[in-house]
Amino acid sequence: MPFSLHFSPTPLITAPSPLSKPSFLVPYYHTLHAPKSPLCSSMEHALTHQGKQEAFDLRPEDSQTLPLGLRRDAMPSHVAVIMDGNRRWARLRDLPVRSGYEAGVESLRKIVEICCKWGIKVLSVFAFSSDNWFRPKVEVEFLMSLFERGMQEDTGIFFRENIRISVIGDLTKLPKALQELMVNLEEATKNNTLFQLIVAVSYSGHYDVVQACQRLALKAKCGLIEPSDINVSLMEQELETNCTEFPHPDLLIRTSGEFRISNFMLWQLAYTELYFAQSLWPDFGEAEFLKALLAFQQRQRRYGV
Ligand SMILES: CC(C)=CCC/C(C)=C/CC/C(C)=C/COP(=O)(O)OP(=O)(O)O
């Protein structure tokens, strides 16, 4: 299948206006002005050499056969996932915790491929919550290295398959190299149109609402808006999901048999259909995803009307 390359090896990032991010995010924006990082070069490498993985078997959407019973006209545009149960998966097999997370990445890759094939436009995944910083240091460091490795290894795929990557959350807390990788990848893939993967890292619903309020307060303080102007639409313009055309997930899937939202996208989930799967995330594959989508397509969404 033909794919579009929109990658510019030295992404042009213009200086943000003082209002584009609140002051507590300024250190993050400083990283944008750093000289071209070696991570940019790794993207160039991934483009000129075949990446680790083979490209997906993607054909134009219309010629893709959907599994029996799944309707294209009722497909969710945006699916959000709480990828729970990685450590339990590892413990059940007497494996180290890191094997559970690694298996979780493989599961994520499979689900991304399926979304591309079945015409889902956006997938948001809760990869690391604001509370996960309190996990053992060695585990946190492993996860950071896994994000870096995962994103580097798949850079080629993102370009070949026309996939846009967006990262939401308080990135200032991440290691500098990872921040740069994420910012560069977001910038370099921002015109890709087949599918958007939103990775929530150092993210919580509370964080998102608070940072949006801070940005609105700053605009009011500078006289750009009146406090009475603040409404749902202005609020949504400041939430981190302003990176996507479909900011409200249609379907939220949580794996591992837990029935909680755990501070994920609290505002955005207002009318989302919830689906809880028993499988641990590394076991969540095509059959389970299909079950969730079929269940979603049975739901009647009334939006309170
Ligand atoms: C590159 C990229 C985006 C990678 C994503 C990697 C990944 C699967 C992250 C999930 C992290 C996480 C804290 C899951 C929660 O389940 P848990 O592991 O805490 O499971 P438990 O409930 O069994 O303890």
Automatic annotation (TrEMBL):
GO biological process, one term: polyprenol biosynthetic process
Pathway: Protein modification; protein glycosylation
GO molecular function: ditrans,polycis-polyprenyl diphosphate synthase [(2E,6E)-farnesyl diphosphate specific] activity
GO CC terms: chloroplast stroma
Keyword set includes Transferase: yes
UniProt keyword annotations, A-Z: Transferase
Cited Pfam families: Prenyltransf (PF01255)
EC number: 2.5.1.-
Top enzyme class: transferase
Function: Catalyzes cis-prenyl chain elongation to produce the polyprenyl backbone of dolichol, a glycosyl carrier-lipid required for the biosynthesis of several classes of glycoprotein.
Family: Belongs to the UPP synthase family.
Annotated NCBIfam families: uppS
Identification of the protein by name: Alkyl transferase
Organism: Gossypium darwinii
